[in-house]
Amino acid sequence: MNDVQQDKPDADGLVRCFEQATPARQLPNLRGIPTLILMSESVLLWSYDHCTFKYLKQAGVNARNDRCCIHPPRHDPHHAQATCCKCLAMNPNFPDGL
Question: Environment class of residue 6 by beta-carbon count within 10 Å: exposed (0-12), middle (13-18) or buried (19+)?
């Protein structure tokens, strides 16, 4: 593997992502499956969830990432997940079946 780490993170408080060297390895079995990554500040994975999204996009996956529109109390992942789901369910663009 010849993965390359970013010189600087995408924003303050985020980790530097690793990107695949070109040509990027593909994930053909996931290519036709819509994938949604929910991100919330209160969840421990917040600082690198964007890296997962970028990796999936680079690997050819139809991925979408959504940050919660309501900022729940930090360090309460259960409340954060419920708040995210309620927020997205009220969004008229929220896809049915997810």
Answer: middle
pTM above 0.85, yes or no: no
pLDDT, position 7: 95
What digits encode the pLDDT tens for the residues 35-62? Answer: 888 777 666 777 888 899 999 999 999 9
**Residue 21 is encoded by which pair of tokens?**
């060297």
Angstrom distance (rounded) from CA 42 to CA 39 = 9
DSSP, collapsed to helix, strand or coil, labels residue 63 as strand
What's the confidence (pLDDT) of residue 50?
A: 87
Question: Which residue is listed with tokens 């999936």?
Answer: 56
List C-alpha distances in Å: 96 to 7, 39, 81.
38, 19, 18
